Amino acid sequence: MRCMSRYCCILFAVAVVGAVSVPADAQITRDPEAEAAYTAGKEQLKQEKWEEAIADFSKAISIDSGYAEAYLGRADALRALEDYSTALENYSHALEMNDQLASAYNGRGVCYREMNQIDLALSDFNNASDLDRRDPEIAANLGNLLIDPRVNDPVSALRWLDKAIELDPKNAEAYRNRGWAHAQMREFDQAIADLKKSIELDPEEYETYSTLASIYFFQDDFKSGIEAISQAIEKYKPKKSSDPEKYISGYLSRADAKLRLAKKEDTDPARRKSLFEEVIADTDVVLGEFPDRYPEAGVALLRRGLALRLLGRFAEASKALTDAIQLVPAGSESPYLAEAYLKRGICWHYQGQDSLARGDFQEAASIDFEDPLPQLWIGFTYAQEQDYRAAIESYGEAIAKDPSFALAYVNRGLAYMQLGEFKKAIENFNEAIRNEPTHASHFYKRGVAHLRLHEYQKAFDSFHLATLNDENMAEAFDGAAKALKGLGRSELAAQYERRANALKSAGS
Question: Per the confidence metrics, is the pTM higher than 0.85?
């Protein structure tokens, strides 16, 4: 009898557990009017009629305040309207009623992400993925957040983006984000392949072209990068009311890339000039939309000033750089201010205004303590004024900031040459050679210093090394001939002289 009683108790317990484990939705009978309003709201969502959807979901909630799915639907519509704070409240209400709604965690995570609450967004996306590992949107959102610089976990991002693409092979955004994750891991071939696949799936998304351009620029492939960023500029359409009418960051990026391409040694002179003029055209677009807004206009003016300077239009360049400097708010740590002062100083220098130039170089040095260039240029201004001791001191300050700065050693050597201190000049040319051992002109300059000291064998060795590094350097062959004459080797000297004359004739 006792066993029978125990058996009955067990059956009762199982019955109770079975009753409470029935899904909550199966026990809820919704008001028909609330159901109808909710169904209408879902249809409005499909048609992207956000305001109408909100009205229908609100009606459902007013009839049935415990309708979690209606809160979820209203939150989705509010999120589409970028009302993230109100959407977040609705997602939270939905989760209070049903904490198994993966899509509510996902939607709230998006809101947190847009509101820059990254830790909360990551927590919600993780909760959503725990509840539903088959939703490609959740996997894509989690992967996207993991490549955010504030999280910076491309390894985990790849895992989730792989999953998102597996679940939805036509998700162009997931391919784009996976491409960026590969790029963060320096896997550039995979990155480019993913971005090209994203473009294939959605050829109208400008951000994909922009991301592709960034990867090309990082690899110094400026031609491919310029082509990609030009596509981004062409495809750009504002996504928010606050977005500019034109792709301003794209124009600035392209202007920078064209400047860098123009400075490459293998760029044809005519193409170089054209690139500088194209830079000016790009900055015209930016300044047309933002004539005085910092930092966009300031960066555009800087790029414009750099291009004008390299075209030799120094007065116009000085004006553009001055405007860029004046746009920086007082006390602001502008990323371009030191460069603007440095480049304006160079313009003053080439206009013969060395006192003005020094002031700008000193200003640049006070902003960027580590950059040796301002001190180098201060040295140039003193050398221009034939104050070689002051120039030597400035070159020394540049070297102290960068002990491998060959150009500073060369110019300090030249200053010592002007003072007749040839041994010190040779010491500096030797330092330049150590840092740039294949630079023919360093050997040539050292040869000249040895020649002044009548050290003919050392002079010849230096000139000979110059010719080995540059077989078309006429002055090096000429110097070698002079050194050989000093050594009494006139026959060999004549051979070097003939070579020097042939090179001079070919050059003329």
Answer: no
